Amino acid sequence: xxxxxLSLNYAFATGYTTDTATNTPDILDAIYYPGTNTGYWxxxxxxxxxxxxxxxxxxxxxxxxxxYTTTNQGTVYPGTMTDQKDYNFTLxxxxxxxxxxxxxxxxxxxxxxxxxxxxxNYNVSTxxxxxxxxxxxxxxxxxxxxxxxxxxxxxxxxxxxxASSSSTTPLTTTKTYFGSGDYGSSLPTKVEVTDENGHTTAxxxxxxxxKYNQLITQKEYGYGGAVLYRQTNNTYExxxxxxxxxxxxxxxxxxxVNASGTRxxxxxxxxxxxxxxxxxxxxxxxxxxGVVMHKDTSDPFTTxxxxxxxxxxxxxxxxxxxxxxxxxxxxxxxxxEYVCVQECLEYEELTVSNYDPNSIFRGNVTKTIVYSDxxxxxxxxx
Length: 382
What we know:
Number of helices: 2
Largest sheet: 19 strands, antiparallel
C-alpha cells in the first residue's frame, strides 16, 4: 500500500460547521501486488473529491514500484487500466451542502470494451421509510426500502426488482419482518418472497428465549405462505464452561425434516473432543473472569500477565531538534518552514496476558458427523 497527502477543500451551507483532525490527511493512492504487477490506482487528480471521498477506483495491470524499506515506502507507478469505476462526488467545494456529499451515479469502463462506458444510477428519498432506487445499466431497477423511524429505524425490510423504470409489477419482492431478540437486538422472524405472478413463499425463524439469539427452528412454506414443506431444527452446545467464557452459538446438531416429519438430513458437531462436556479435558479450561473481548495476540484464559508499551500520553515538541534547510535552528522565532521532532515523555503501560497452553478449549470443531442415510441415521464421521 502506498500513501500520499490530500489537501481538503470543502464548504457547507451557512450555519454548518466541521470538525476535522487535519485538512491534509494521508490517503491511499495505490495498492500494488508485486507478484503479479497488478493492483489499484488512486493517484489521479480526480481520484478523491475535495471533501476526501474516494471518487475513482482503477484496477490496473502492468504496475511497478521501486524498492521500499521499513522507513521509506518507495514509489508505485501506474500501469494499464483493466477496470475503472467513477463516482460523481463533487470534486470542488459546494457551499449549498447541508450534509456530507453523496454520489448519484457510478460510471464503469473496462479494457477492450466495445461500448460506451455504462452507468448505474442511484436515488435516495426519505419519508416514513427510506427508499433507495438503483437503476442498472441494462435498465432493471432495484428498490430497497428501510425503516426511517421507530424501533427498527435503519433496518432494510423490503427489496423489489423491476424489469424497467416504467414497470409497475415487480419481478420479485422480498419482505422481511422483525421481532425483538436478546440484548435489545432485533432479529428477522419471517421472510416472504413474491414473484411476478403474485405467488408467495415464506420462511419463519424461531429463536431460543434468553439463549443468545440462537436460531432453533426454521420453517419453509410453499406458495401461499401457509403450507409447510420443510423444517430445520437446531440444537446448541450450551455447556456452562463455554457460556461463562462468552463462547456462544456453538451448533450441536442441525436436522431437516419434511412436512410429515420424515428426516431429510442431519449433521452433528463436536467441539474440543468433547473434553469440556465430559470432564475429561487434560488440561482443562482456565477461568476467565469478566473477559468479553481480548487482543488477538493475547490469551484471556490465564492470570499470568506481562506489561507492554502502549500509546503515548503526552507528546511534546523537541525544539532543540528543529531544522531548516537541513540545518539545526534555534528559537523562537523559527522560519516558517522549520521542522521539529515530536518526543514522548511518558507511554501508557498495558497489561497483557501471556499464552497459556492450558487454554486449548475454545469451541474448536473436532468432529462433524453427516448422515448419508438421514432417515435411518447411518452416519459417517466427516
